[in-house]
Amino acid sequence: MASEIVVGIDFGTTYSGVSWAVNGGTKTIRLINDWPNPTSTNANSDKVPTKISYQDGKPYNWGYAVDFKEESWIKLLLDPKNKIGRTAEAVLTSNKLLGSLNKSAEEVAADYLRLVWEYTKSDIQKVRGDNWASIYTLRAVLTVPAIWSPIAKEKTLKIARMAGLPDTLSLVTEPEAAALAVLKEKNEEDESLKIGDCFVVCDAGGGTVDLISYKICGLDPLQIEECAVGDGGLCGSVYLDQAFERYIKTIVGEDAYNSLRDRDKKKMLLEFELSVKRCYSGDDKPYSVDLRGVEDNPKEGIDDDTITLKPSVLQTVFDHVIGQIMRLVEKQIDEVQERGNRAKAILLVGGFGTNRYMHRRLKEAYRRSQIQVLQNNGAWSSICRGATMWGLENSPNSTFTKKTVKARLARYSYGLSYAVRFDESKGHVLQDRRRFPDGVWMATNQMGWLIQKGDRIEDGKVMQEQLATPVQVGFLSTGTRPFSQELYYCADENPPPRKEISVKPLCTVDYGIDCSKLWHERGFKDPTTGEKWRHAVFDLLVVLDSATLHFVVFYRGKPVAYTEAKYKEEF
């Protein structure tokens, strides 16, 4: 009997989703769609709102049960790189509420995720029986935006552990999870996929929009590989809400708008989401929202607490955000072509990916190019379902002979700073010149790039670099000698050979070696001081998967540390 259950969690900016499957037999994926809902208006919804409320400093309600005073957009606060998201009004409001609760964004996110996790386990119990915990172990896969910084991804892992998720926890990027679900299901449903076909996946969510492109390189089983370096931006549907709210402020007046009750403003925004944002297709019919307490203004279409939205206004509001997404899509299609391929279709996934107007605009833009624009059924839940599929494939208990994603393209260059023999003819600068203990003048701050942006990295490929460092250890030295290795990243298309301003610190790997072992290394004397030194040689192995970097340090052929990187706070 199978002994593992894989749970895929799409922790979204506005909505979150969960699916799970037993890692054995048919591996049928169950999507949770009966979230607790006191109003039952949204019964059988594929996702649950990413909202939580507190009472007396403790979690009180979550999801659909939350009223209009809630913590939302918490996810956007997790990435210090996300400067734009911090200016959004709802984010500012969330920050104020965090202050009043005396809680960090990580703590609130962990509280929310804990409630989702507990409900997930109750769903498993409902399906697999009361004694399920004695039969199955749990493996969780959590999704993150591909454009997120490493520190944000590390924070996500920290939050998941705070929330009580199992140690067998992995991260996968949202667009890869979505692509996995959509392309595998498409391959099973029809025979339209052909080897060599290229697809641009546009994962438009609440906060972020991620672009990723895949080429079909096998059909039975399905195998894909990235055929363009992924891209993305902060132009998800919450920024549409922000643009809409800015418009309302201009016609109502900022002071008058600010004087209205938060509850009434949030009801209006919810109505905009459910009745306008999901239905608008660029048509000429007027839409309306209710805003209690607003003063009548017939000229602006405000009458009896109802605001009528003119088609031209709605188009302007939508174009502000969708225009950004279309530019990202165009850039990704150009990248596919520059690598000698041709995009066959654009696959729209994610909650915002179901938007009718976005589909219409993209279809009009690529009609002449004969690039199809497809909106698949279940696009809203594709990310959590894909996360479950990814977990089933990547689990140590997997019965799959091949993984679907065969290779990825690096979004950054990753490397080490090291020293080489100083040589002005090679462009070395005097400010980097240092005398080493062996008497040789070396040029420091030189970069060795383990991975370069755009490199094709086969799944499971290991990058290896040998590191040598002088160390002073005596015959009587005891204990462990600490070592530290900093890693760097660069977003430039062609990373520089020297540590320049575009080369940023990524993280630090710390490890230690017994002094008794180091004493046996090859020794040498400083020709000037006569001090005795030894050469310590290490091998650093780096593995880059969908969303995380893994490091293993080897000394004398044996692993001495499998470390979690300590990411810099500002990536």
| Multimeric state | single chain
Helix/strand-derived class? alpha+beta
Q: What's the pLDDT, averaged over the residues?
A: 89
Tell me the major beta sheet. Answer: 7 strands, mixed
Helical content stands at 25-40%
- Overall morphology: globular
CATH topology name of the domain at 4-171, in short, is: Nucleotidyltransferase, domain 5
Number of strands: 29
Number of helices: 11
Q: In the CATH classification, which architecture of the domain at 4-171 applies? A: 2-Layer Sandwich
Write the SSE topology:
Elements (H helix, E strand, L loop, with lengths): L3 E7 L4 E8 L7 E2 L16 E2 L2 E4 L2 E5 L26 H13 L3 H24 L8 E8 L5 H13 L6 E5 H16 L8 E7 L4 E11 L2 E12 L3 H16 L1 H6 L2 H16 L9 E4 L11 E2 L2 E4 L1 H28 L4 E7 L6 H10 L6 E4 L6 H13 L10 E5 L3 E9 L11 E3 L5 E11 L4 E3 L3 E10 L8 E11 L12 E12 H4 L4 E3 L6 E13 L4 E7 L2 E6 L2 E2 L4
Parallel strand pairs: 1-7, 7-8, 9-15, 11-17, 15-16
Antiparallel strand pairs: 1-2, 2-3, 2-4, 5-6, 9-10, 10-11, 12-14, 13-14, 17-21, 18-20, 18-23, 19-20, 22-26, 23-24, 24-29, 25-26, 26-27, 27-28
Helix pairs in contact: 2-3, 4-10, 5-8
